[in-house]
From TrEMBL:
Organism: Micrococcus flavus
Official protein name in the record: DNA-binding protein
Domain of life: Bacteria
Amino acid sequence: MSVRRAPDAGEWRTGVVMAVTFHGADDATVFRAQLAPDLPRPGRVEPQETLSLVWHGRDRVTGVMPGAWLRLRGRVHHLDGDPTVHNPEFHLLDEAPSPT
């Protein structure tokens, strides 16, 4: 999953949720998550590349939590320089995909 380019909205990506952010009482109802193509390598705290996921009008998305694997698609926009997908179509995966 390269997030440096803006692939077609129909392209499926797979990754692991690294973090979620809940909105505050005074904030707009938005649920955010950070998706990485894989778990960080040993000795690294953060993955090299992440994709921001934003769900508008949601204060949580069932099953989307740190450590969950997702398969998703949606158009990538660069919001403040960060690759972001708004309201992605997604499926929860039971386990990490096997490397190909």
